[in-house]
Design a protein that fits this description.
Blueprint: H1 15-28, H2 35-42, H3 46-57, H4 61-79, H5 87-93, H6 99-110, H7 114-120, H8 127-130
Length: about 150
């Protein structure tokens, strides 16, 4: 169905779809989910989910999922002790099975390697680790009704 704007099913690609999709991703980031799972959870087509993220969040659903998982991996690395956890275990827990790609994405997001974060331990003695990074909820920014009541 064409809405005349060139966006099939344009009404399904709105802010409400984005809001439901981001909530599903945040609640299920620990699971092995993909685009089809996200779409099914919010009762729209996969393409509508892609359009919603593209139009309202300037990212993709799977890009947003990676950011959420990266944030959780970061949180786990900061909280872990160097002798009680490993970067590989924490990365795999959050769905990062390629260590090189995980390390590159982590460094790009946090400015330090995941192993440096783990070595710093829960005390966060490294200056660059003391700056708390907010969770990657930027997709919700600017969506009417998505903020606190």
């Amino acid at each position: 169905m064409d809405d005349g704007l060139g966006w099939p099913g344009n009404h399904d690609a709105g802010p409400e779809t984005l809001r439901r999709a981001t909530a599903f991703i945040e609640d299920n980031a620990h699971r092995d989910i993909g685009l089809a799972d996200i779409a099914a959870a919010v009762f729209v087509t996969p393409r509508a989910v892609q359009y919603a993220f593209s139009r309202h969040a300037d990212t993709t659903p799977l890009g947003y999922l990676r950011r959420v998982r990266l944030f959780h991996a970061h949180t786990d690395l900061v909280a872990a002790t160097p002798h009680g956890a490993s970067v590989i275990t924490i990365a795999a827990r959050w769905g990062f099975n390629h260590q090189g790609r995980f390390a590159a994405a982590y460094r790009a997001a946090y400015g330090v390697s995941p192993s440096a974060t783990l070595r710093a331990g829960p005390d966060q003695t490294t200056e660059s680790l003391q700056t708390e990074q907010p969770p990657p909820l930027t997709a919700r920014a600017g969506i009417p009704g998505s903020g606190p009541p």
